[in-house]
Amino acid sequence: MALLGALAFAFVPQGDGWKRVEPGIALVFPADHGPHPEYRTEWWYLTGHLEDERGARFGFQFTVFRRGLEAGPVPADASPLRAHEVYAGHLVLTDVAGNETRFAERMRRAGPLAGASASELDVRLDDWSLVRSGTGSEEELALAAADPARGFGLALTLHPEKPLVRHGEGGYSSKGADPGNASAYVSWPRLAVTGRLALDGAEHTVLGSAWYDHEFGSSVLAGGAVGWDWFALQLDDGRELMLFTLRDAAGAPPASAGTLVALDGTPRALHRADFTLRPSSTWKSARTAATYPAGWTISIPGEALELTLTPLVPDCELVSDGSTRVSYWEGPVSVTGSSTGRGYAELTGYAGSMAGRF
Q1: Which of 213, 218, 126, 215 is nearest to 178 (CA)?
Q2: Does residue 6 sit within a domain?
Q3: Residue 148 pLDDT > 90
């Protein structure tokens, strides 16, 4: 995710050795920008909209996932070839005018080619990297990732325009009735983007806006949950909105929540009763035969918000057979209605249940 990224959290019983995110978790930065190996799964996530010098529009996604394979410290006599945790990466470019989505993926065991700084946002996977530097008005993120074989790449600088947001209760984001079914979840909901985009050998100068997520935990999908719908929206009135709803096999939501970020950066936690999410159409994949929602209406009566979301490109399905082995839909959307804007949607569990998946 954005909510969970493309790595699923199966239900993890107590006593399995992994630490669980509990209410009252205290997050301290910049240290908590780094990895949390005591938890089973973690990801660093960027999605955004770009426009080049000719006005051509693009969406992009960059994600690095960390997955622990063994709980506890690495034994002193462990072989250096023994995989204690792995890192996977997804790089996606959606060409709006070309009605096309390009997807690259990687997976490596933790080591010289893949890892994250212990106390800072500095994640690397081969020659892909996302690094934070500076403080205050000088704070920025640098993204560098390309896949020449698929003909695209990004070199972007991203400046936070609002403070880091802690979702839920101080960063404790509940995903079910069990206190341990939760993640630690923070975002920069609006980053100004400048840089370069490479596409089929041509270089484009781009400007835009992005959303950053960092999330970690060990047990989120309780029994019965098969997937989720997640949305990260930047409204033209200066507010941002994150919503997610989990789904069971019958399509019912066992858990839903969100965050509405005010113009000054103040977050308001939204609960299941505060909003409704209604799909308005569908799109069927020729690759997986999965049928996904392809348009939505979001209503938040307490904020007088009635929003219509429309995908900019119908086919944003990502089939990650070379990394996380999950098929999901993630792509840019437009926002119209009582407020306008843009954002990203992520849809999982439509091409197979997410329970127990990696």
Answers
A1: 218
A2: no
A3: yes
Q: Which domain holds residue 167?
A: 31-73+85-347
Three-class DSSP category at 233: strand
Alpha-carbon distance values, 72 to 38, 39, 68, 149, 328 (Å)? 7, 10, 10, 38, 31
Pick from 154, 146, 232, 164: nearest CA to 194: 154
* Average pLDDT along the chain: 90
Band the pLDDT of 180: cuts 50, 70, 90.
Answer: confident
What's the pLDDT tens digit per position in 52-94?
999 999 999 999 999 999 887 766 666 666 778 999 999 999 9
Closest CA to 66 of 11, 9, 22: 9
For the whole prediction, is pTM greater than 0.90?
A: yes
Pair 91, 128: CB distance under 8 Å: yes
User: Is the separation of the CB atoms in 134 and 120 below 8 Å?
Assistant: no
What does the longest C-alpha to C-alpha distance in the chain come to? 61
> Looking at the domain assignment, is residue 24 inside a domain?
no
- Give the pLDDT confidence of 192-232 residue by residue, as tens digits: 999 999 999 999 999 999 999 999 998 766 667 788 999 99
List Cα–Cα distances, 111 to 58, 107, 114, 126, in angstroms.
Answer: 33, 12, 5, 10
CATH code (residue 35): 2.40.370.10
Instruction: Give the integer Cα–Cα distance in Å for 86 and 41.
Output: 10
What is the three-class DSSP state of 264?
A: coil
